[in-house]
């Protein structure tokens, strides 16, 4: 399973990776991206190799390209179709109609969160992705 | 007029205390304790986020470098020999989460436009931008206003975190 974590904060990406590993993604390949454009490039590169991502977790407020723009670009370019998205953000009302840009399962995890809350959100998704 | 001002101030204090408590308990594994003393520190890290909209707001956090190290340890769940960039990132993320909780509590009264955290180092020698960042010649660091509501909270046993909140009049 390939997972993409998009956040301009390295600390946040490390926390999310740790949460993913504890939620059941011990053997998954987790790729980091520092903003929406970096994330878009990583998706393009992965899909060009015939792999793609199975789950995408993204922040909203980022430099260069924010999370809403990332999902809008993914949709416009037909990238990561059907891939579940989890938005991880401190801004619980931010992102406008970000969910509208997602054509697959969409979840929102608001910071701050406990490890238990993170796992409660991620574990079912990981299970679903792993078992179709 | 005076009572309305006091009520407004009281509300800001309640908002700040509950926002900081939530972040401390869920992400730093600490109980939030208000301090009346600023432990200071020769070199400090400050992070500010501005919310722009019908009523703008600015939330800043500031703490000594040593406490920044503790924040990184707590967020990442282990002690480490973190470099300056990561510690500054951790403080920026702390500001991000506190501001998010403040914004949630103030609701539609504050703007929906979040700036990214501006993180700087403050010392006797002045203010400089975060490690590895590039700024223009006319760069001026974002600073909390002198009349911003300011609260102090213990980080661990030795240091205090200063949180300031100002509503409106944000340049």
Describe the structure.
Chain A is of the alpha/beta class and 132 residues long. Chain A has 4 helices and 5 strands. In chain A, helix 1 (10-23) links the parallel strand 1 (2-6) and strand 2 (29-33). With 171 residues, chain B is of the alpha+beta class. Chain B contains 3 helices and 8 strands. Chain B has helices at 2-28, 65-76, 84-106, and strands at residues 34-35, 44-52, 57-64, 113-114, 118-123, 126-129, 149-155, 159-167. Chain A binds chain B through residues 8-12, 14-15, 18, 61-63, 89-94, 110-114, and chain B through 22-23, 26-27, 72, 75-77, 85-86, 89-90, 92-93, 96-97, 99-101, 103-104, 112, 114, 116.
Keywords:
heterodimer; A: 132 residues; alpha/beta; 5-stranded parallel sheet; 4 helices; 5 strands; 18% strand; globular; B: 171 residues; alpha+beta; 8-stranded antiparallel sheet; 3 helices; 8 strands; 27% strand
Order of helices and strands of chain B: HEEEHHEEEEE
The shape of chain B, in one word, is: globular
**Backbone structural class of chain A:** alpha/beta
Number of strands of chain B: 8
- Work out the oligomeric state of the chains in this entry: heterodimer
Question: Helical proportion of chain A?
Answer: 40-55%
Radius of gyration of chain B: 16 Å
Uncertain spans of chain A? none
Mean of pLDDT of chain A: 92
Strand order of the largest sheet of chain A: 2-1-3-4-5
The number of strands of chain A is 5
Report a brief summary of the structure.
The complex is a heterodimer of chains A (132) and B (171). Chain A is α/β, with parallel strands linked by helices. Chain A is 42% helix and 18% strand.
């Amino acid at each position: 399973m390939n997972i993409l974590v998009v956040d301009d904060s390295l600390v946040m990406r490390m926390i999310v990776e740790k949460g993913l590993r504890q939620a059941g993604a011990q053997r998954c390949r987790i790729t980091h991206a520092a903003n929406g454009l970096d994330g878009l490039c990583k998706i393009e590169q992965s899909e060009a190799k015939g792999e793609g991502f199975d789950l995408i977790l993204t922040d909203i407020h980022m430099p260069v390209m924010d999370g809403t723009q990332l999902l809008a670009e993914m949709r416009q370019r037909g990238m990561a179709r059907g891939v579940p998205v989890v938005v991880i953000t401190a801004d619980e009302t931010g992102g406008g109609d970000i969910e509208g840009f997602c054509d697959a399962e969409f979840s929102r995890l608001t910071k701050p969160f406990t490890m238990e809350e993170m796992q409660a959100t991620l574990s079912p998704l990981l299970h679903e992705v792993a078992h179709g | 007029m005076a009572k309305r001002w006091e009520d407004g101030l009281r509300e800001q204090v309640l908002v700040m205390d509950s926002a900081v408590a939530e972040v401390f308990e869920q992400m730093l594994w600490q109980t939030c304790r208000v301090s009346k003393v600023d432990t200071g520190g020769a070199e400090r890290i400050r992070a500010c986020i501005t919310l722009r909209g019908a009523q703008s707001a600015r939330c800043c956090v500031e703490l000594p470098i040593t406490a920044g190290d503790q924040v990184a340890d707590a967020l990442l769940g282990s002690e480490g020999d973190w470099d300056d960039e990561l510690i500054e990132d951790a403080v920026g993320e702390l500001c991000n989460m506190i501001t998010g909780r403040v914004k949630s509590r103030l609701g539609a009264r504050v703007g929906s436009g979040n700036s990214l955290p501006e993180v700087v180092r403050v010392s006797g020698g002045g203010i400089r931008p975060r490690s590895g960042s590039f700024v223009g010649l006319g760069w001026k660091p974002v600073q909390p206003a002198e009349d911003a509501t300011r609260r102090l909270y213990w980080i661990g046993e030795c240091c205090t975190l200063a949180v300031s909140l100002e509503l409106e009049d944000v340049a």
